[in-house]
Design a protein that fits this description.
Layout (H helix, E strand, L loop, with lengths): L4 H27 L5 H8 L3 H7 L3 H8 L1 H16 L3 H17 L2 H8 L9 H20 L9 H11 L7 H19 L17 E3 L14 E3 L14
Antiparallel strand pairs: 1-2
Helix pairs in contact: 1-2, 1-4, 5-6, 5-8, 6-8, 6-10
Length: about 240
Protein backbone atom coordinates (compact mmCIF):
# COMPACT_ATOMS: atom_id res chain seq x y z
CA UNK A 1 0.00 0.00 0.00
CA UNK A 2 2.88 2.33 0.83
CA UNK A 3 4.24 1.96 -2.72
CA UNK A 4 0.99 3.29 -4.13
CA UNK A 5 0.88 6.42 -1.93
CA UNK A 6 3.11 8.73 -4.03
CA UNK A 7 1.19 7.84 -7.18
CA UNK A 8 -2.11 8.58 -5.40
CA UNK A 9 -0.78 11.94 -4.26
CA UNK A 10 0.36 12.79 -7.76
CA UNK A 11 -3.05 11.81 -9.08
CA UNK A 12 -4.77 14.04 -6.51
CA UNK A 13 -2.46 16.91 -7.39
CA UNK A 14 -3.24 16.50 -11.08
CA UNK A 15 -6.96 16.47 -10.35
CA UNK A 16 -6.66 19.62 -8.22
CA UNK A 17 -4.66 21.38 -10.91
CA UNK A 18 -7.24 20.46 -13.56
CA UNK A 19 -10.09 21.70 -11.34
CA UNK A 20 -8.27 24.97 -10.69
CA UNK A 21 -7.70 25.58 -14.40
CA UNK A 22 -11.33 24.74 -15.24
CA UNK A 23 -12.46 27.14 -12.53
CA UNK A 24 -10.09 29.86 -13.72
CA UNK A 25 -11.38 29.57 -17.29
CA UNK A 26 -14.94 29.91 -16.04
CA UNK A 27 -14.40 32.72 -13.52
CA UNK A 28 -11.85 34.78 -15.45
CA UNK A 29 -13.70 34.12 -18.68
CA UNK A 30 -16.91 35.59 -17.29
CA UNK A 31 -15.64 38.25 -14.87
CA UNK A 32 -12.28 39.22 -16.33
CA UNK A 33 -8.84 39.46 -14.78
CA UNK A 34 -10.05 41.44 -11.78
CA UNK A 35 -11.70 38.31 -10.32
CA UNK A 36 -9.91 37.41 -7.06
CA UNK A 37 -7.91 34.23 -6.60
CA UNK A 38 -10.07 33.19 -3.64
CA UNK A 39 -13.14 33.12 -5.86
CA UNK A 40 -11.33 30.82 -8.28
CA UNK A 41 -10.34 28.55 -5.38
CA UNK A 42 -13.95 28.40 -4.15
CA UNK A 43 -15.19 27.62 -7.66
CA UNK A 44 -12.62 24.81 -7.91
CA UNK A 45 -13.53 23.39 -4.51
CA UNK A 46 -9.99 23.75 -3.13
CA UNK A 47 -8.43 25.92 -0.46
CA UNK A 48 -6.35 29.02 -1.27
CA UNK A 49 -3.22 27.19 -0.10
CA UNK A 50 -3.80 24.45 -2.69
CA UNK A 51 -4.31 27.02 -5.42
CA UNK A 52 -1.11 28.90 -4.54
CA UNK A 53 0.83 25.65 -4.29
CA UNK A 54 0.05 24.99 -7.95
CA UNK A 55 0.14 28.63 -9.10
CA UNK A 56 2.24 30.83 -6.79
CA UNK A 57 1.18 34.01 -8.63
CA UNK A 58 -1.87 35.18 -10.48
CA UNK A 59 0.34 35.82 -13.49
CA UNK A 60 1.28 32.13 -13.62
CA UNK A 61 -2.38 31.11 -13.38
CA UNK A 62 -3.47 33.50 -16.12
CA UNK A 63 -0.71 32.35 -18.46
CA UNK A 64 -1.69 28.69 -18.05
CA UNK A 65 -5.44 29.39 -18.13
CA UNK A 66 -5.28 31.07 -21.53
CA UNK A 67 -2.49 28.99 -23.06
CA UNK A 68 -4.90 27.47 -25.58
CA UNK A 69 -6.19 30.89 -26.68
CA UNK A 70 -2.64 32.15 -27.06
CA UNK A 71 -1.78 29.21 -29.30
CA UNK A 72 -4.92 29.86 -31.34
CA UNK A 73 -3.92 33.49 -31.72
CA UNK A 74 -0.44 32.48 -32.93
CA UNK A 75 -2.02 30.11 -35.45
CA UNK A 76 -4.40 32.81 -36.69
CA UNK A 77 -1.50 35.20 -37.25
CA UNK A 78 0.57 32.57 -39.06
CA UNK A 79 -2.33 31.54 -41.30
CA UNK A 80 -3.19 35.13 -42.18
CA UNK A 81 0.37 36.00 -43.15
CA UNK A 82 0.59 32.87 -45.29
CA UNK A 83 -2.65 33.63 -47.17
CA UNK A 84 -2.01 34.39 -50.84
CA UNK A 85 -4.95 36.83 -50.83
CA UNK A 86 -3.96 39.80 -48.60
CA UNK A 87 -7.53 40.99 -48.12
CA UNK A 88 -8.75 37.53 -47.18
CA UNK A 89 -5.86 37.14 -44.73
CA UNK A 90 -6.58 40.54 -43.20
CA UNK A 91 -10.29 39.83 -42.88
CA UNK A 92 -9.86 36.33 -41.46
CA UNK A 93 -7.42 37.53 -38.81
CA UNK A 94 -9.89 40.13 -37.57
CA UNK A 95 -12.68 37.55 -37.49
CA UNK A 96 -10.58 35.04 -35.54
CA UNK A 97 -9.37 37.62 -33.02
CA UNK A 98 -12.96 38.70 -32.39
CA UNK A 99 -13.99 35.07 -31.98
CA UNK A 100 -11.31 34.48 -29.34
CA UNK A 101 -12.23 37.65 -27.44
CA UNK A 102 -15.94 36.84 -27.54
CA UNK A 103 -15.59 33.60 -25.61
CA UNK A 104 -13.56 35.01 -22.72
CA UNK A 105 -13.60 38.40 -21.03
CA UNK A 106 -10.38 37.42 -19.27
CA UNK A 107 -8.53 36.72 -22.51
CA UNK A 108 -9.79 39.97 -24.01
CA UNK A 109 -8.59 41.80 -20.89
CA UNK A 110 -5.18 40.17 -21.09
CA UNK A 111 -4.80 40.88 -24.79
CA UNK A 112 -6.01 44.48 -24.72
CA UNK A 113 -4.78 45.90 -21.43
CA UNK A 114 -1.65 46.23 -19.32
CA UNK A 115 -2.72 44.26 -16.26
CA UNK A 116 0.44 43.51 -14.26
CA UNK A 117 -0.70 39.89 -14.08
CA UNK A 118 -0.91 39.67 -17.90
CA UNK A 119 2.51 40.90 -18.95
CA UNK A 120 3.12 37.59 -20.76
CA UNK A 121 0.51 38.68 -23.30
CA UNK A 122 2.36 41.85 -24.34
CA UNK A 123 4.48 39.91 -26.84
CA UNK A 124 1.35 38.24 -28.28
CA UNK A 125 -0.29 41.62 -28.73
CA UNK A 126 2.76 43.12 -30.41
CA UNK A 127 3.12 40.09 -32.71
CA UNK A 128 -0.51 40.38 -33.75
CA UNK A 129 -0.33 44.12 -34.37
CA UNK A 130 2.81 43.70 -36.47
CA UNK A 131 0.98 41.05 -38.52
CA UNK A 132 -2.01 43.37 -38.99
CA UNK A 133 0.33 46.16 -40.11
CA UNK A 134 1.97 43.89 -42.69
CA UNK A 135 -1.37 42.51 -43.92
CA UNK A 136 -2.74 46.05 -44.17
CA UNK A 137 0.23 47.12 -46.29
CA UNK A 138 -0.31 44.19 -48.68
CA UNK A 139 -4.09 44.72 -48.89
CA UNK A 140 -3.63 48.44 -49.53
CA UNK A 141 -1.19 47.67 -52.34
CA UNK A 142 -3.88 45.55 -54.02
CA UNK A 143 -6.44 48.33 -53.58
CA UNK A 144 -8.72 46.26 -51.34
CA UNK A 145 -8.14 48.05 -48.02
CA UNK A 146 -8.89 51.72 -47.43
CA UNK A 147 -5.69 53.75 -47.86
CA UNK A 148 -6.27 55.58 -44.59
CA UNK A 149 -6.39 52.45 -42.43
CA UNK A 150 -3.89 52.36 -39.54
CA UNK A 151 -3.33 49.72 -36.87
CA UNK A 152 -4.91 52.03 -34.29
CA UNK A 153 -8.20 51.47 -36.12
CA UNK A 154 -8.07 47.78 -35.19
CA UNK A 155 -7.38 48.68 -31.56
CA UNK A 156 -10.36 51.03 -31.62
CA UNK A 157 -12.50 48.28 -33.10
CA UNK A 158 -11.44 45.75 -30.43
CA UNK A 159 -12.09 48.27 -27.66
CA UNK A 160 -15.63 48.66 -28.94
CA UNK A 161 -15.95 44.89 -29.37
CA UNK A 162 -15.27 44.38 -25.64
CA UNK A 163 -18.63 45.98 -24.94
CA UNK A 164 -20.25 42.80 -26.28
CA UNK A 165 -19.16 41.05 -23.08
CA UNK A 166 -22.17 42.71 -21.44
CA UNK A 167 -24.60 40.98 -23.79
CA UNK A 168 -26.21 37.68 -22.75
CA UNK A 169 -23.94 34.70 -23.38
CA UNK A 170 -26.48 33.16 -25.77
CA UNK A 171 -26.32 36.23 -28.06
CA UNK A 172 -22.64 37.14 -27.68
CA UNK A 173 -21.17 35.09 -30.52
CA UNK A 174 -23.92 36.10 -32.96
CA UNK A 175 -23.45 39.76 -32.03
CA UNK A 176 -19.67 39.45 -32.46
CA UNK A 177 -19.97 37.96 -35.95
CA UNK A 178 -22.27 40.73 -37.11
CA UNK A 179 -20.17 43.46 -35.50
CA UNK A 180 -17.00 42.13 -37.18
CA UNK A 181 -18.76 41.92 -40.55
CA UNK A 182 -19.84 45.56 -40.38
CA UNK A 183 -16.39 46.76 -39.37
CA UNK A 184 -14.65 44.74 -42.09
CA UNK A 185 -16.97 46.31 -44.67
CA UNK A 186 -16.02 49.73 -43.30
CA UNK A 187 -12.35 48.87 -43.79
CA UNK A 188 -12.91 47.82 -47.41
CA UNK A 189 -11.55 50.30 -49.96
CA UNK A 190 -14.60 50.19 -52.25
CA UNK A 191 -17.96 48.42 -52.39
CA UNK A 192 -17.90 44.94 -53.83
CA UNK A 193 -18.53 44.81 -57.58
CA UNK A 194 -20.63 41.67 -57.21
CA UNK A 195 -23.55 41.06 -54.89
CA UNK A 196 -22.64 42.16 -51.33
CA UNK A 197 -21.58 39.44 -48.92
CA UNK A 198 -24.60 38.61 -46.74
CA UNK A 199 -24.27 39.77 -43.16
CA UNK A 200 -24.33 37.20 -40.34
CA UNK A 201 -27.68 36.91 -38.51
CA UNK A 202 -28.56 39.73 -36.16
CA UNK A 203 -28.88 38.94 -32.44
CA UNK A 204 -32.20 39.74 -30.82
CA UNK A 205 -31.31 42.31 -28.16
CA UNK A 206 -33.50 44.70 -26.23
CA UNK A 207 -32.39 47.42 -23.84
CA UNK A 208 -33.76 46.84 -20.37
CA UNK A 209 -34.98 49.46 -17.93
CA UNK A 210 -32.38 52.14 -17.26
CA UNK A 211 -32.12 51.07 -13.60
CA UNK A 212 -30.23 48.01 -14.78
CA UNK A 213 -27.18 50.08 -15.70
CA UNK A 214 -26.89 52.05 -12.45
CA UNK A 215 -23.31 51.65 -11.10
CA UNK A 216 -23.14 48.68 -8.77
CA UNK A 217 -26.02 46.85 -10.39
CA UNK A 218 -24.57 43.78 -12.12
CA UNK A 219 -27.62 43.20 -14.32
CA UNK A 220 -26.73 43.27 -18.00
CA UNK A 221 -28.14 46.27 -19.90
CA UNK A 222 -29.30 43.82 -22.56
CA UNK A 223 -31.66 40.90 -22.55
CA UNK A 224 -32.57 38.27 -25.08
CA UNK A 225 -35.91 38.67 -26.79
CA UNK A 226 -37.76 36.06 -28.75
CA UNK A 227 -38.01 36.99 -32.45
CA UNK A 228 -41.76 36.52 -32.21
CA UNK A 229 -42.06 39.26 -29.57
CA UNK A 230 -39.90 41.87 -31.29
CA UNK A 231 -41.76 44.72 -32.95
CA UNK A 232 -40.07 45.12 -36.33
CA UNK A 233 -40.18 48.03 -38.75
CA UNK A 234 -40.89 45.75 -41.68
CA UNK A 235 -44.26 44.89 -40.21
CA UNK A 236 -43.51 41.20 -39.70
CA UNK A 237 -43.34 41.41 -35.91
CA UNK A 238 -46.25 40.96 -33.54
Amino acid sequence: MTNHLPQTLRSDARDNRARILDAARAVLGEKGLSAPMREIARHAGVGPATLYRHFPTKQALIAETFAEQRRACHTAVRDALADSDPWHGFRSLIERICELHTHSRGFADAFMTTFPEAMDFAADRERTLRAVSELARRAQETGQLRPGFVVDDLILMLMAHRGLQDTPRAARVTASHRFAAYVIEAFRAAPETEAPTPLPPAPRLQLTHSLSVIPGNRTSPYEMTSPATVSRTDGTGT
